[in-house]
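Ticket reopened. Same input as before:
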Amino acid sequence: MEQRQFKVKIILIDIPTTIESIDWLFKTIKNTTVQNVVFKSNLQSIFSKSRDQIFILNLNSFSQEFLNELKEAIEKVELENLFISLSSDASKISSILSRLGIKRIYFYPEEEFVLRNDVSERVEQIKQEFESEIVKDNFQKKFEFNRLIGKSPKFIQCIEIAKRVASKSDATVLLLGETGTGKEMLAKAIHYNSERAEYPFIELNTSAISETLFESELFGYEKGAFTDAKNSKPGLLEIAEGGTAFLDEIGDLSLNLQVKLLRAIENKTFKRIGGVKDIKVDCRIIAATNQNLEKLIDEKKFRSDLYYRLKVISIHLPPLRERIEDIIPLAEHFIAVFNTKYGTKVEEISQSAKRILLQYTWPGNIRELSNVIERAVLLCDSKTISDKDIQVGLSSILSTMKKNLIEIKVEIDKAKIQNVTYDLVQEVLKLVDGNKSQAAKILGISRPSLLKILNHKN
Ligand SMILES: Nc1ncnc2c1ncn2[C@@H]1O[C@H](COP(=O)(O)OP(=O)(O)OP(=O)(O)O)[C@@H](O)[C@H]1O
Ligand SMILES: [Mg+2]
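Engineering reply: fixed in the latest deploy. New output:
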């Protein structure tokens, strides 16, 4: 990956060359280059807004003309990056300069070390900004929508809704889907591609902690609210201010907390435990579950009012077995991921291994596929993943595959290859709910060839 080099250019303007010490002073600041220029009434062309250029302008004397020039030129420079040194003759203009917004004024040579330190500090500041931007850049890139692999119509539809949700709306989102279908990944993509991206993404898993702990995590508490509350503590809804609160496994939330959560969402305010003050919340709620909430409502385990409040926008991530055309692209994506992680050089998946991946039902969805490919990459001793590499990870899997076993019974007098082929196609079509493209993929033939087989029989 391309990494920009960090360097700040220190431009010394009109520093008398006889004062070598100035040059020397700045050349010792790390991560910088120093350049001497002479100012001949063209300050505007020297100044630049570039964040990685610092200007030190030395004034021995001044004139009205110069002040006019400076007033105009100052628009062209980042004030934080402008330092002015004055000889004692020019001391009279220091108040005029500060009126122009120039705060960094130093008397020379009395303050040369102060000047050097301040410049050095500014370089350090710029460096930190630069680094945090790289980290932020890389971090946000990780959650760009195009990082989500999948071209199947069902998946594309999910992404389209998610993009719209991210860009336009603050509405609550409900993410549904079996385990490992990418709910968390999509929640992050929505957050990091929304105007809330600069604010926190806070995650709270309902099923992982007890009810009381969940409540105090979500709403916070005041000092003395319960025996252990020695200090007050803000809730995650407060910490997520401006950002997104991701409530995972919402189906496991107790009925009591469902009421409190609904109230917080509807009123956009809540109280800390033991608190009397209403606290305003501005955060988007994204909830996720792999359970069937409607069934939970029938069983009186989930409140329908909260359900309707949460599902203002709901996105149902399809299980992998309903997006068979995404299996191989995802597998190839994971090969690249694990090649990077382990320094391996796996290039491809053999045809027979692909067939296994396509036939399997993937109850653990993308997470399971990722695990299988990770193991295969580690086991693989050539550049091609073989069915053997896949099967080791799949030994438990193969038993579930039996459910997908295709059985064709043929009477011996009708055992023409054509008939068998036709029957096989029919069986595979049953397996994929009649989706011809998917069936063709499993059979390793093109869609037109599949249609030909079907028509031929007729
Ligand atoms: N479209 C995708 N492209 C690439 N990787 C994906 C995609 N969807 C999911 N993954 C990866 O699959 C794994 C499981 O995804 P994630 O944790 O988002 O699933 P989940 O639906 O939240 O699962 P659970 O219900 O078990 O919490 C993660 O490693 C994630 O990075
Ligand atoms: Mg999850």
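The chain has a mean pLDDT of 86. The chain has four domains: 8-136, 148-318, 321-401, 412-457. Please confirm and we'll close it.
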